[in-house]
Please model this.
Amino acid sequence: MIIHGLQKMTLVDYPGLVAAILFTGACNFRCPFCQNASLVRNPASEPEIPDEEVFDYLRKRRGMLEGVVVTGGEPTVHSDLLGYMGRLKDIGYKVKLDTNGYRPDVLRAAVEGGYADYVAMDVKNSLTHYAETAGLSHVFTGLIEDSISFLMEDHVPYEFRTTVVHELHSDEDFEEIGQMCSGCRAYFLQTFSDRGDIIQPGFTAPSPEDMERYMGILRKTIGNVSVRDR
Model:
């Protein structure tokens, strides 16, 4: 699997662990607010980090680092994902998988095969507005529902999260999301911020008042809801 980015340490991306982050390329979504446009649309244009460099670093940092986050792009589009996660496990790391949930078969295999110790799934929007938010003409929302249902069976620790964009999200969307994810372990809202390399520039952040209201809506059905800075 080709790795295009390595963040050598994070204290926030793997809850409870000091971790590194590995960035894969390519994605099956085209979210217009995505801030990794080059990585998603043209990963071949991005630098590649050789395997030996990645694993040499991770071996040297064992003990200081406890986990590795595999993110993207969208990791589940890669046929060698599970083997790669297995290699990370073999050198002693806990592995967190970040996914958009559009390949529930791969998600299930990663969890049931013991490759993923934690999963963070992006819930882009209500099912009503999923395609628009994912940047596609059509989304098979049943695949999203399958991934949500599977994670809520509690096979591994997990979280759901939504990057909130002023132009794309509404009270009605979060009412629907709250019903869809009712009773889940944890739900995080992330405020959109335009930091460049956006697929479709022009989006803006929700107001603090909007974020508070959206949290209140989700808390009707979800006990653990908070805002996480991106």
